[in-house]
C-alpha cells in the first residue's frame, strides 16, 4: 500500500542560518521513499525593461534538504539543488545512500540558509511506496574476473539486463564482494555472495557481505561446519551447489550442516542435475521442507552456458536484495531453463509455492503456466506419484487445477522435447506446496 505524508512549515527569519529536523513516521513494508519539497524560490526581484526583463540571480529564499534514518544516520543531503529525492534498498538519488526503508521515525533535515524578512512557507511531501509481491527473474550463481569468470561486475550487471534478468547473485570462488562495491544498474539487483569452494564440496552463501571472518580454508568437518554456522547466523542464504557434479560433488554430511536450499539445476540440464532432482525428491518424500534452487554457474558464454540458464523465477515482496533472498529461502520460486522460458503461478488458497496449508482446509491447487510449446508435458509430482496433467496441443498457456487426495507435498514439472529424437527434459521445475495433515 502506498502512503503520502504532507506537511507545511513556516520558517521565521530568526531561524536563518540554523538547521533543524522534522520527524515523520514510516510504517512497515515500504519499498521506496520519495521526498519532495517546495518553497518560494523566486529570484529577488525582476526588473521590467522597455524591451525585456532582467532577472536578478540571488534567490529570495534558500532552504536545504537532507534525510536522516531512524538510526540517526544521515541518508543524504542535497543542499537546495534537488527538489525531489528517492531512496530504496537498491537505488538512491546521487548524494543519497541506498538503504532499506525500515519502519520508524525518519527526519527531514532542514537547512534555513536564506529566509526573507516575511519568512517563508515550505511544503513537504513524502511518498512511501508499499511492497507488493511480483515475479522477478534472476540468476543465483555467477562468477566474475575475481575468480575464474571473464567479466567484470559491471559487465555482469549489463549482461543480466540484456538477458532480461531482474537480479544476479555474484558468487565468486572464496572471494567476497560487498554490496557497496556492486554496480548500481537501475532494474538489476546485484546480490553479494560467495561460493565457498572446498575440495570436498561447494556451497553459496548469498545476501550478506561477510558470512564468516576467518579464511575460507578448513581441514576438518568441524571447521567447515563453523563456516556454515557463521553464515547461517549472519543471515546468508546457504545453497548446496551441484551436489552430484562429478568434478565437484558435495561430500560433506548434510545432516550436520545448516543450509537453506539445494541447487538441483546447475547450468545446462544434464545427468548430475537429474540426480540432484532425484535426491531432492527423496528428501521431500521423507517429509523435509527444503526448497530447490538453480543457477547458471556462469563464467563465460559458450553454446550451452549463458547468464540465466537456468533462471530462478522468484515471487518477491520487493526488488530489494533482502526480499529476493527471503523469497528464495521460503521456496517462493520455480526454476526455468532460460530468462524467456515458461513461467508458473501455483496457489492453494492463500498459499504459494514454498508455503504450507492444512489439508483438512484446502485440497485444491491452481496451476497457471504461461509460455507452453506444442508437445510440452505438465506433470504433478507427489511422494506417491507422478501424474501427467496436460500435454500442450499447441503453443499457449494453461490454467488447471489439481486435487490432493491426501496430505503431502506436490510440485510440478514441465517437460519439453528440446531436440527431436532425444528424451524430454525439464523446461521448468517448481517448488512444492505442502499440504500438512494430521
Ligand atoms: Zn561450484
Ligand atoms: Zn560456481
From the spread of the alpha carbons, the general shape counts as elongated
Residue share in helix: 10-25%
Bound small molecules, by name, code or SMILES, are: zinc ion
Distance between the termini: 37 Å
In terms of structural class, how would the helical and strand content be classed? mainly beta
**How many structural domains in the coordinates?**
2
Task: Please count the beta strands (DSSP E, at least 2 residues each).
Answer: 29
The major β-sheet equals: 15 strands, mixed
Give the number of helices: 4
Low confidence ranges: none
How much of the polypeptide forms β-strand, as a percent range? 35-45%
CATH architecture of the largest domain: Alpha-Beta Barrel
CA gyration radius, whole angstroms = 27 Å
Summarize model confidence as the mean pLDDT.
Answer: 95
Give the name of the CATH superfamily of the largest domain: Metal-dependent hydrolases
CATH class bucket of the largest domain: Alpha Beta
Annotated CATH topology of the largest domain: TIM Barrel
